[in-house]
């Protein structure tokens, strides 16, 4: 591939051979491609040319094949590009393809031939969310108002990926502005990309805001992907797409070069089909960055995230935050998870985390922090684009697509919000962080726990463009999000053929430990199943 980046939405429109499927509630969305009749049910992720199943392959498996000479990075990258062409007309997860992907893969093969590979990610195809700066691909946060944005350099996480030899396959769709434009937004929709669909049932939602990253990984369109989260935006779509997602400790992964919401909660993190792949991706992403002060607090000595232990649950003490009574089907998934924990040798203690004191203060702080942090990003980034939230509000109003399904109430509130330095905002942030940390730390200390386990969220809901999200309760992301602590979701079962995950939450900087516990749970249960691409749920 060479030349300009490929906009996959435009290509999908060209490829589409049939009418929109009436079973998809969002089929009238002009910014999403119709469902091609010929591609309605892809047969797993087995690649005939490679001779193995991409869905089941881990990064260590792929590296072993490349070391043995039975696989090249070029062949692997080409296989994923074939998957994008065959499957993404259904899911609409990929926004931009990198025209240099095959050249990057060829460079990886040359390094391997010379005995100079750069580590576990060398030659591995990766996608990143389209709110992460890339010097050679557009960065838009899904908004048509940012089509003129021209980042001068890669985000720090992208630099780290390139240095590790990863193949940047492309960029994924997202909930526009990371789902921080309106309380009535539809997750997975953006003005540029249209609607990303859940691969388990195409009329169901993929949650957000890292919708495209989650769906691309679940559908086998990339080996791993990078998402971002402020509150739930990695773990929620990962859960609904039946994959692994880690929301790291805030400060473990640099946010430099990422379209922000709030420096108090924002982080990038890994999304993968397998815990081992998420851990290997985190090992590359994490680290100090002079451009992000929060990373300077990383302890000098941290356990290696990829040092996973399949027996990590043996002797562990796990507090279970059941959030029971909101969906009996999810309650059953949690109970089965408890049984699995005990069989793996863990001691289980029921706990309850009180989040009520957190919600109001989090919301108050985020509006002001969003204005401060987004405007700083816009003003520092080259290009022809609005540089204030007020200017973005005007740009959205003047656009024929942006406000088709929902408004921009959050933007309007942020445009007139108090400065983030106002004492009431500073106090709200301080209270929210303290309350979230007290809830987690209190439970851990009271019962001498290694982690708290909770249902990540309920199953995917029907997508109803124009009517907002019908969130499926329960949800547990806020505790880790506001405290800044790590949370990793891992598949835990199904509700009516829709995946549901559970999250392991631990204290600050315990990311490696949470990954190890999640790995032990994954290896003990093997709940994940490939997507089915049903047109109706």
**Number of helical stretches of at least 4 residues:** 16
**Can you count the beta strands?**
16
What structural class do the secondary elements suggest? alpha+beta
Q: State the helical fraction.
A: 25-40%
Which band does the percent of strand residues land in? 5-15%
Radius of gyration: 21 Å
Low-confidence stretches: 11-28, 36-40
Main sheet: which strands, in order across? 1-4-6-5-9-11-10-15-16-14-12-13
Largest sheet: 12 strands, mixed
Short description:
The protein has 537 residues and is α+β, with helices and mostly antiparallel strands. It has 16 helices and 16 strands. 36% of the residues lie in helices and 13% in strands.
Describe the structure.
The chain is α+β, with helices and mostly antiparallel strands. Helix content is 36%, strand content 13%. The protein is built from 16 helices and 16 strands. A 12-stranded mixed β-sheet has the order 1-4-6-5-9-11-10-15-16-14-12-13, with helices on both faces. It has a two-stranded antiparallel sheet with strand order 2-3. Helix 9 packs antiparallel against helix 16 (511-525), helix 12 (389-397) packs antiparallel against helix 13 (409-415) and helix 14 packs across helix 15 (477-483).
Primary descriptors:
537 residues, two-stranded antiparallel ribbon, 16 helices, alpha+beta
Write the layout of secondary structure elements.
Elements lengths: L5 E2 H8 L30 E2 L4 E2 L5 H10 L4 H19 L2 E4 L3 H13 L11 E5 L26 H8 L3 E6 L3 H4 L9 E2 L3 E2 L15 H8 L5 E6 L5 H6 L3 E4 L19 E6 L2 H11 L31 E4 L7 H16 L3 E4 L5 H25 L8 H9 L11 H7 L7 H25 L3 E5 L21 H7 L3 E9 L2 E8 L5 H15 L12
Parallel strand pairs: 5-6, 5-9, 12-13, 12-14
Antiparallel strand pairs: 1-4, 2-3, 4-6, 7-8, 9-11, 10-11, 10-15, 14-16, 15-16
Helix pairs in contact: 3-4, 9-16, 11-13, 11-14, 12-13, 14-15
